[in-house]
Amino acid sequence: MTAKNFSKVQKQLGAKPAKWAKYVKHNKPKEREFGYGVKRCEFCGTTRGHIGKYGLNICRRCFRLNATKLGFKKLN
After folding, report:
1. For the domain that residue 54 is a member of, what is the CATH number?
2. This prediction's pTM
3. Is residue 69 within a helix (H) or strand (E), and if so which, with residue range?
4. Less CB within 10 Å around the terminal CB: N or C of the chain?
5. pLDDT of 2
6. Is residue 19 in a domain?
7. Residue 44 lies in a domain
């Protein structure tokens, strides 16, 4: 469980702040310090296809869309 939507539970526990705080404390996703889940795309937020070289920190799909704006040229 790395990402969770708390909206349903918040509707049920919204009127009970102590129970809501306890629920969030025990059920929130773990904060990552290193590994696969830390490197995210600057534009879309995905962790797949990450390009970190030259400090780009974007995924391959966003790179294809924004390469000319970033100053890259396509060589044939």
Report:
1. 4.10.830.10
2. 0.59
3. helix 60-70
4. C
5. 43
6. no
7. yes
SS3 (DSSP) at 59: strand
Burial (CB count within 10 angstroms: exposed 0-12, middle 13-18, buried 19+), residue 67: middle
Q: Give residue 61's domain range.
A: 40-76
Task: Say if residues 56 and 63 touch (Cβ distance below 8 Å).
Answer: yes
Q: Is residue 1 scored above 50 in pLDDT?
A: no
Name the region of 45 (left: φ>0; alpha: ψ -120 to 50; beta: rest): left
Higher per-residue confidence, 9 vs 67: 67
CB 64 within 8 A of CB 72: no
Q: Number of structural domains, the chain?
A: 1
Q: Are 47 and 54 in contact (CB under 8 A)?
A: no
Taking CA atoms, 26 is separated from 11, 20, 22, 30, 40, in Å, by: 18, 10, 6, 10, 25
In a domain, 45, yes or no: yes
